[in-house]
Amino acid sequence: MLEKGYDSYVYSTYRDILWRGAWTSLLMQSPFGELPAGHRSSHHIWNEAEQAVVFEIYAAAYAKAGKKAEAGAFKRAANLSLASVKSWIRPDGTGYVVKNRYPIEAKHGYERYSKHSCYNLLTCSMLAQAWQFADDSIEELPAPADVGGYVIPVLGNFRKIFANAAGNYVEYDINGDHQYNPTGLLRIHLKNGHPQLGPSDGAASFFSGEGVNLAVGPSWKKADGTWEKLADYNGRNPWVQTLEEEPGKVCFKVNYPELSQTITIDKDGVTVEDVIKSSEGIRVSFPALVYDGKEHSVVEMVENQLSLMLEGKGVTFTVLEPQGLELKRSGVELNHRNGVVEEVYAETSGNRISYRISAKPGATP
Predict the structure, then answer these.
(1) What whole-number distance in Å separates Cα of residue 72 and Cα of residue 81?
(2) pLDDT in tens, 300-356
(3) How far apart are CA 320 and CA 171, in angstroms?
(4) What is the helix (H) or strand (E) element at residue 169, kind and residue range?
(5) Can you tell me the distance from the alpha carbon of 189 to that of 31, in angstroms, rounded to the nearest whole number?
(6) How far apart are CA 275 and CA 238, in angstroms?
(7) How many other β-carbons are positioned within 10 Å of the β-carbon of residue 153?
(8) Are 262 and 212 contacting, i.e. CB atoms less than 8 angstroms apart?
(9) Which of 10, 77, 158, 251 would staple 264 via disulfide (CB 3.0–4.6 Å)?
(10) How many angstroms separate the CA atoms of 117 and 142, rounded?
(11) Which residues of the chain register pLDDT less than 50?
(12) Element (H, E) at 70
C-alpha cells in the first residue's frame, strides 16, 4: 500500500516498522531462500513468494535512492526466494503447498485451513506482485544469507536465534511452543547440502503426535533413572551469549538452568557442544528425514556417523566426543512437515557431548 502511494498521518510509523521488518527478514532468510520455520503456516511455499514481494519492493526503493549495495542484496534475496518456490513445482505445473512431495490428496503437513487451490492462487498472486515491483536493471549482489558473519537473537515473544557463517545457517528456538516447534536447534541449512535433510525443522505434537518433541540436541539421565530432554523445555527464557561474529565463523551459547549449548558455525558446517550440569548420562538426538512423500532418503550409519542423501545432496551427522560412541536408529517413524523423520541417537555416561553437522562429501551445490 505504501509503495502504491498510501499516505496519512501514520505513514512514517508504518514506513519505519516495515523498513525494520524488511531488514530483519533479510537476516533471517536461509541460504536456500527459505523463510524461517515456526508455528502456523510455516513450510508453505507462499512464504517465499511473500518474501519475494517485500524484497523486490526494497530492492527497487534502494536502487532509486542510489544505494547499489543494499539494492543488490535485496535483489539477490528476492531471487533466492523465487528459486525456492521454483524447486517446489509439481509435474502438473501447480505448487506443492507444503515443502514435501506427497500427492495432493494426502494433505501431508497441511494446516486445517490449507487448500491446494487457494494456496496455489495465493502463491501466484504474490509472485505476480513481486513481478510488478521488480526492476530487472538492478545488479544482483551477495545477500546476508550468502555471506553470513552474524548472530541475530530475536527473543521476547519470538524466542528465536538466527546465525549464519559463510552461507551456513541455523535457526534455534529457545523456548518452543511444543505444538508446532520443540525447544532447541530446529533448522540447519548448509549451502552445499540438502535443506530438508538439514534438518529443516524439529518435530512436535501437532504433526508428530501427542507428547512428541524432537530437535537436534541433548537429553540427560537424572538420578532417579528418568530422562529429560531439552526439546521439552518450557521454563524461563535462557540467557543467550554471542561469543564470536566473523564472516567465516560465528559462535553463540544458550544457557539453561540444567545445561548449556555452544553452537559454532563455520564454512565447513555446524559444531555443537552440550554440557549438562548434573547427570547420570547424556544422549544426543538427530531427527533424520527418511521419506519426503516421493523418495526415501539413502541412510548410511557407520559407528559414530550418520549420512543422509536425497536428490543427489546430503548431510552428515557425526558424534565427535566422547570417542567410540555408536549411533542407533529408534525404529519409530514420526510425521513431519517435510515427510517422515526417525530419531537417530547416541548415548554415554558423563555430562558432555559434542557433534557436528556438515554437507555430505561429494554433494553438489
Answers:
(1) 14
(2) 999 999 999 999 999 999 999 999 999 999 999 999 999 999 999 999 998 999 999
(3) 22
(4) strand 168-173
(5) 7
(6) 15
(7) 18
(8) no
(9) 251
(10) 35
(11) 363-365
(12) helix 68-86
CA distance 332 to 50: 36
Q: Which three cell numbers stand for residue 29?
A: 532468510
Q: What is the residue extent of each domain of the chain?
A: 11-142, 148-359
pLDDT at 10: 78
* Gap between the Cα atoms of 320 and 271, Å rounded: 9
Task: Specify the fold of 148-359.
Answer: Beta-galactosidase; Chain A, domain 5 (2.70.98)
Distance between CA atoms of 148 and 155, rounded to whole angstroms? 20
Give the pLDDT of residue 6. Answer: 75
pLDDT at residue 25, rounded to an integer: 97
**What is the grid cell recorded at 252?**
553463540
| Total Cβ atoms within 10 A of residue 365 | 8
- Beta-bridge partners for 283: 219, 347
Contact criterion met (CB below 8 Å) for 322 and 348? yes
186 in Cβ contact with 202 (< 8 Å): yes
**How many angstroms separate the Cα of 32 from the Cα of each of 6, 211, 322?**
33, 31, 33
Question: How many Å is the maximal CA-CA distance in the chain?
Answer: 66
- One-letter identity of residue 25: S
Residues contacting 144, CB < 8 A, separation 6+:
26, 27, 29, 73, 77, 150, 164
